Amino acid sequence: MSKPYTEEALSFHLDSELTWRRKELSDLKLAISKADSAAKGVLLRALVTMTYAHWEGFVRACATKYFTHLTLKRRPYTELDIQFYKNSFLARLESFFKAKSSTEDNCKFISAILESHNSKFSYINEQLIDTKSNLNTDVIKDLCVICGFDHTFFEGKRIFIDLTLLKKRNAIAHGQEDSIAAPDVDNFVDTGLALMEHFKTLIENKVYTKSYLKTEPKTSCLES
User: What predicted TM-score, i.e. pTM, was given to this entire model?
Assistant: First the structure.
């Protein structure tokens, strides 16, 4: 698949990511509906783990494609929202504070911040798109901050993300006998897909409106 140079190409990438995941979950739902009582419990547990896997995998893949799209434009940081410039130092900042740096190292780090503002955005540190194998509400919130997205929708889904999807997935992954009830399958999958669709929409809104660009301060009509 070609690189997402254009907005249309990026949308195609995002659509492709969602389509195969939706198909896999749909196939699993169908298998559950046709399974006998012995197999149904196993498939229900598989559905929980698969839905979570697609939630985490989709977010990580699409965030990566979003930043790839923007790095291909090679715009200078001065043209972009300030969050992109902050991102260029976030990963380094964490390791910087963990290390016992000398005064010389401290000065070099500050100089890098002050002097690189006119450079172009051409790289995103993969550490910033780390879903931590635990994509709960707080992690998706942090990722939204990195991307410059509003995270309100996900905050409203905290109970589903943290207590229904993630908690059950973790229980199953640790060998506990947990699952969802058969009558809840449609709502469970639909909610999981809604999370993915919303993240996709956030990306597309950002690139099509070009709201990733720096917003110039409004000038008062009274100013000369």
Answer: 0.89
